[in-house]
């Protein structure tokens, strides 16, 4: 065994770039839907070890960080390519660029973190533990920046190694997703320590997080469910057929029939939830949608119960002098066909819903996947929707659910009673993208202490309570409907009150400890 381990170490040291790429390629196996936690430690442990071996060569570390990141995002985001096959006659040419250039760009954040870490290692002769802790700090900071700058893409953050597991994920209610990622990477760093008792601290850190999760999930009585009954519809309409004019009537009938089926089983439904852009038409422009709605839903009941409200995703248009503006919206309709409230998606998908430098790129013939002239325009953040007899709803349209700040309630904005995520993952087929998506959205419920209801066109639809436990749901690629009373909100969590402040406090505290313990001797020049 010792000889085999020596051979593996020698091989890894001789081929750091290849092994760094391999470590990145396997990392997504630690995320949903696979959730193989040992892979998280194997991947990051190998990466930390390779970084330690080349710790005083910043240029080589930059390359190592880049190949690791490229491998991670190549396999982790390979499902993005499915979107370019929906209208292959228009976008197939872009598929190779999407599945390579996106990972290549995202990998730069980790590469720069390793480059900076290399300069620190060349300057200070740190022991392995302090060096590994420093690397954890820089990697989680790079992940934070990746989720923030250039519109941000906080997809498959380091936190998801722990965040895919319900008990470990509970720490996000205290320190948020980035704090969870820092703790997870610190546990990797502890495993890299020279002394055995320090390596055991990694297990202790995991057990502490597990204990916190057990106490939060089972240590306190859960509040009773609210009196609001929600019915969630998942029509499972193929993205390739969704916007075909000849299929429009079939799609409308599918959604209405599923809705009627749900009301047969849950006649006291208060809120019906349809997915993003559920009806392929401009439903607020006199297209007959209100009449269809009145005909499909029950009238005022004998007991005086109001007909159910419908919250649906829809495309909205505002006619302008120079061009029409289109919005990806959430619309709240009364059961008798009146539009009561609406909100527009704030955080749009680059190249999917709009083009950066829209006018210039359109001038040379490029267009976003959503083929609307000019793409979507964006609305204000932190919208709230409600009506008589309904709780306060916070709509999160599609991938807005992966951004922690969009689920928060900043000063002056009412705290909602429930988070509502409407999405259309039909763009991405049956790959692992939709599983990654819902795993990340679930963390918003845990962070905020709020229930979360999700309707997805092709799946995965679900209802989570304020601790992230799934109460009901429909799998990917299945048409269906389900109903249940909405879970109640908890008191605002620590993270809901303070946001990322505690993450930064934790990050800074660890940085100060490293500075204090670092060797006072300057490393000799190489």
Give your account of this protein's structure:
Helix content is about 45%, strand content about 15%. By secondary structure, it is an alpha/beta fold. It has two domains: about 10-220 and about 505-515, no CATH class; about 230-490, 4-Layer Sandwich (Nitrilase/N-carbamoyl-D-aminoacid amidohydrolase), CATH 3.60.110.10. Strands 1, 2, 3, 4, 5, 6 and 12 form a seven-stranded mixed β-sheet that branches. It has a five-stranded mixed β-sheet with strand order 7-8-9-10-11, with helices on one face. A hairpin with a 5-residue loop joins strand 10 (about 460-465) and strand 11. About 45% of the residues are buried.
Helix fraction by DSSP (H/I, runs of at least 4) = 40-55%
Going by CATH, the architecture of the largest domain would be: 4-Layer Sandwich
Tally of strands: 12
Beta content: 5-15%
CATH superfamily caption of the largest domain: Carbon-nitrogen hydrolase
Q: How are the SSEs ordered, and which strands pair?
A:
Blueprint: H1 2-14, H2 16-26, H3 37-53, H4 58-76, H5 88-91, H6 95-123, H7 128-146, H8 160-163, H9 166-169, H10 172-191, H11 196-218, E1 229-234, H12 239-242, H13 248-265, E2 271-273, H14 289-296, E3 309-318, E4 325-333, E5 339-344, H15 358-363, E6 376-377, E7 393-397, H16 404-407, E8 418-423, H17 433-448, E9 452-456, E10 461-464, E11 470-474, E12 480-485, H18 494-498, H19 501-517
Parallel strand pairs: 1-2, 2-3, 4-6, 7-8, 8-9
Antiparallel strand pairs: 1-12, 3-4, 4-5, 9-10, 10-11
Helix pairs in contact: 2-3, 2-4, 3-10, 4-6, 6-7, 7-10, 7-19, 10-11, 10-17, 10-19
């Amino acid at each position: 065994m010792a000889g085999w381990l020596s051979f593996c170490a020698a091989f890894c040291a001789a081929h750091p770039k290849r092994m760094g790429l391999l470590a990145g390629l396997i990392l997504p196996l630690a995320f949903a839907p696979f959730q193989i936690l040992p892979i998280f430690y194997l991947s990051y442990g190998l990466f930390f070890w390779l970084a330690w071996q080349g710790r005083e060569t910043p240029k080589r570390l930059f390359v190592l960080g880049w190949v690791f990141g490229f491998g991670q995002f190549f396999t982790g985001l390979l499902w993005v390519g499915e979107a370019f096959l929906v209208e292959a006659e228009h976008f197939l040419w872009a598929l190779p660029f999407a599945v390579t250039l996106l990972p290549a760009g995202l990998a730069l954040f980790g590469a720069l973190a390793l480059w900076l870490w290399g300069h620190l290692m060349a300057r200070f002769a740190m022991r392995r533990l302090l060096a590994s802790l420093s690397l954890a700090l820089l990697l989680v900071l790079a992940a934070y920046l990746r989720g923030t700058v250039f519109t941000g893409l906080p997809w498959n953050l380091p936190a998801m190694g722990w965040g895919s597991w319900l008990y470990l994920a509970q720490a996000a209610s205290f320190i948020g997703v980035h704090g969870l990622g820092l703790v997870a990477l610190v546990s990797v760093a502890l495993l890299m320590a020279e002394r055995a008792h320090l390596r055991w601290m990694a297990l202790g850190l995991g057990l502490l997080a597990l204990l916190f999760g057990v106490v939060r999930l089972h240590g306190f009585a859960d509040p009773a469910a609210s009196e609001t009954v929600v019915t969630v519809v998942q029509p499972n309409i193929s993205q390739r057929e969704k916007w075909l004019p000849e299929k429009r009537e079939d799609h409308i009938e599918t959604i209405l029939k599923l809705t009627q089926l749900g009301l047969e089983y849950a006649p006291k439904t208060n809120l019906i939830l349809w997915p993003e852009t559920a009806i392929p038409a401009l439903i607020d422009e006199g297209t007959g949608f209100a009449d269809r709605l009145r005909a499909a839903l029950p009238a005022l009941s004998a007991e005086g119960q109001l007909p159910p409200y419908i919250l649906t995703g829809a495309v909205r248009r505002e006619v302008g002098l120079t061009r029409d503006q289109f919005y990806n919206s959430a619309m709240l309709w009364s059961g008798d066909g009146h539009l009561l409230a609406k909100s527009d998606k704030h955080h749009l998908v680059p190249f999917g819903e709009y083009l950066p430098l829209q006018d210039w790129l359109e001038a040379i013939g490029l267009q976003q996947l959503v083929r609307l002239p000019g793409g979507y325009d964006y609305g204000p953040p932190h919208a709230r929707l409600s009506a008589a007899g309904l709780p306060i709803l916070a709509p999160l349209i599609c991938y807005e659910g992966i951004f922690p700040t969009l689920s928060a309630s900043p000063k002056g904005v009412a705290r909602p009673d429930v988070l509502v995520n409407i999405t259309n993952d039909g763009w991405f087929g049956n790959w692992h993208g939709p599983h990654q998506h819902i795993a990340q959205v679930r963390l918003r419920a845990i962070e905020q202490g709020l229930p979360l209801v999700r309707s997805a066109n092709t799946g995965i639809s679900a209802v989570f309570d304020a601790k992230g436990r799934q109460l009901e749901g429909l799998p990917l690629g299945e048409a269906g409907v389900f109903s249940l009373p909405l879970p109640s909100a908890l008191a605002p969590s620590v993270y809901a009150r303070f946001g990322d402040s505690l993450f930064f406090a934790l990050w800074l505290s660890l940085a100060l400890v490293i500075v204090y313990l670092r060797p006072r001797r300057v490393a000799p020049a190489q």
